[in-house]
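Next up, a specimen:

>
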Amino acid sequence: MEIERLFSMQDELNSRIVKEHNLENASLSEQRRLAFLVELGELANETRCFKYWSKRPASEKEVILEEYVDGLHFVLSIGLDLGFTKIELPNEVEIRGEMDKIELNSLFLSLYQWGSKSLSHQDFHAFFDEFLGLGVKLGFSFEEIETAYFDKNAVNHERQDTGY
């Protein structure tokens, strides 16, 4: 995964939005954290992991991946707010092994806690790793996540073009 490229693309999108919406003097960190939490909830809803009362299956993999990548946009934005332009990625095989031990609902609840507070640089590393772990737990490779991010980032630029 070309993490520096993802941070750079997110920075470009954020800068465009800030400029086009006249937000140069606004602090958007709380809005970005709340947006992350909303996207995380939408993702949980598509996985249906918490819906013990329902027999309906999770949404299709592509829908879940798109919701996951929506969250990634805000994870990257939170990192940019903290001054990150790159971060060391965990080993994909190792993180897969770690995620096998964690129940999906617990992972969502932990990410809600991370997203609900201001993060230090050290906290962001743990938050980022855990969010990547969620993607792996959901069955996605780093390559799939990266490709989906590129696709959704292009959609987000198109949405700005059309006054979304």
About this structure: The chain has a mean pLDDT of 93. The helical segments are 3-20, 29-47, 61-81, 92-99, 104-115, 121-137, 142-161. The chain has seven helices and no strands. The first helix runs from residue 3 to 20.
